[in-house]
Amino acid sequence: MGGVRLQAITWERLADRLAERLLDLKLGDGSPWPRVAFDGAPAARPGDLAGRVAEALRPLGRPSLVVGTEGFLRPASLRLEHGHRDVDSYYDGWLDTGALWREVFGPLEPGGDGRVLPDLWDPVTDRATRSPYVQLPPGAVLLLHGPLLLRHWFPFDLTVHLLLSPGALRRHTPEPDHWTLPAFERYETETAPAATADVLVRADDPRRPAWNG
After folding, report:
1. What's the rounded Cα separation, in Å, for the pair 45 and 70?
2. From CA 67, how far away is CA 117, in angstroms rounded?
3. Strand partners, 201
4. What is the largest CA-CA distance in the chain?
5. I need a labelling partner for 199 at 20 to 30 A (CA). Which of 21, 24, 70, 128 fits?
6. Distance between CA 208 and CA 184 in Å, rounded?
7. What sign does the dihedral 168-45-182-195 (CA atoms) show?
């Protein structure tokens, strides 16, 4: 993190500040739909912040759609081909990036129709979710959350990384999932999300977040 200075803030105020920032966000590729990443290990609960931002956007008159990458995992036969605790598979092969491009990012490209599929696959039942498509009007915001997001070159207009120190990551990760921790160490080394994200939020203490403003 180098010399990054972080300021204490509440989750509610953080969501409000992010929502306000989205109102004036300039989109580089001309798409009418802002696309925002909430990147973080499951223990950092990036989906919670995405949901808070969606709530903060509502009274500002901006519709949004929260999408979790857990709805775009590959089928178990592919995900777990090399075992239930294969770190390389978790890092490289669990997320169906092709489906995300096809069903989420493609419809939100310039000239797209804004018709987005909110999820595709249920990892618990290992079956297709059969969820209906959602029609996003121009100006609606995509709030995508999940782990290891910033290594895929998705066309985000704003990236938020929820940072956990190695100790906090281990404490807040359930013991049966500790096998995934080396994947996040590799992510820090190869992608450096704390340095590359537009917004950095430290979430070591879930009651007292801090951010880089």
Report:
1. 12
2. 9
3. 162, 211
4. 47
5. 70
6. 22
7. negative
Helix residue ranges, H only, the chain: 11-23, 46-57, 76-79, 87-92, 97-100, 166-172, 181-191, 193-196
pLDDT tens digits in sequence order for the chain, 213 residues long = 555 789 999 999 999 999 999 998 988 899 999 999 999 999 999 999 999 999 999 999 999 999 999 999 999 999 998 889 999 999 999 999 999 999 999 999 999 999 999 999 999 999 999 999 999 999 999 999 999 999 999 999 999 999 999 999 999 999 999 999 999 999 999 999 999 999 999 999 999 999 998
**80-86: long-range pairs with CB below 8 Å, 24+:** 85/179
Place of tokens 């079956």: 127
Specify whether the CB–CB gap between 60 and 82 falls below 8 A: no
C-alpha to C-alpha distance for 3 and 195, rounded to whole angstroms: 11
Residue showing tokens 């294969």: 86
- Give the residue among 158, 183, 180, 167 at the shortest CA–CA distance from 26: 158
pTM strictly above 0.85: yes
Please report, for residues 100, 149, 178, 196, the alpha-carbon distance to residue 116 in angstroms, rounded to integers and kept in the order given: 10, 18, 33, 27
What's the chain's Rg over C-alpha atoms? Answer: 17
H/E stretch holding 4: none
Structure tokens of 21? 């920032």
Q: Is 111 within 8 Å of 4 (Cβ atoms)?
A: no
Whether the CB-CB separation of 39 and 159 falls below 8 Å is answered with: yes
